[in-house]
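General statements about sequence and structure are easier to judge against a single worked case. No coordinates are needed to read the tokens, only the vocabulary itself. The sequence in question and its structure tokens are set out directly beneath this paragraph.
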Amino acid sequence: MRKIFFILSVLVLSAFPLALIEGQPRCFAHDSSNVIKFGVYPYESPRSVYTLYAPLARRIEAKTGKKVELVSAPDQETFIERTRQGAYDLALVSPVCFFKVQDAGYHVIARGKPSFYGGVIVRSDSGITSAEQLRKKKVAAIGQYSYGGYLFFRQELAGLGISPDRDVQFSFLDKVNSVIFGVLNKQYDAGILRIDTLNRPEFIAIRDKVRIISRSPEIPQFPFVVMNNLSEATVQLILEVMTAISPENLEGSNILTSLQIDRIVAARDSDYDAFRRVIKEVE
């Protein structure tokens, strides 16, 4: 099996595909390369991204016969910019990120299930039990484009009469482990992240050291998107790989567990329309 390359530097492509306007018919072209650049939203460290997504990338390689380059970016802003430039053929993006790159020529092909929730954590011994107590406090967030890791709580604070811009000191750390340990090490009074992250094996030992004081509305899982000009045959093979992953065998179960989902199903852009309206309320 071909070796999967993990690239952290900026991707320089010889020719970018033409971006299609949302609502126009999608045009699938024959692939001009034997490489699939698989971009993963940088919600984890580079090492964690590789650990989590390499098994899926290997399956895509075996199915398509193409080399898969597993890539990420140092931060959310850079990832969004690279995505808009067409740097990735296949990408796992946050819902908000998808809304920002859709018109650059991407569409949804799959998503995980079930949905998840964002939440605000504090240290168990902090004495903070409600959002109102975070006025004039330091709060670690995933990033300004993360609904579960920032935006929902920004909306909640505004509803309480607390200005998220003036009354709370937010720091955007990008990575969930930075948020968790920033709170535990008392660098921040609270942190915002995807709640089920706390159930991952590496965080079980510290799970009782934090308390959840706020939860977001239901959030659809991050979508897998592809460039509109990726050949239909390749897209179909990628989708077959994803939807065939089963919890009934050990490797499949390990992949799904590591991604914090029960299964991957076929999806389309319209599956995110309702959530788009939620985001517009925040903006």
Observations:
- The chain has two domains: 21-115+220-282, 118-215.
- The radius of gyration is 19 Å.
- Confidence is low (pLDDT under 50) at residues 1-31.
- The CA atoms of residues 19 and 147 lie 26 Å apart.
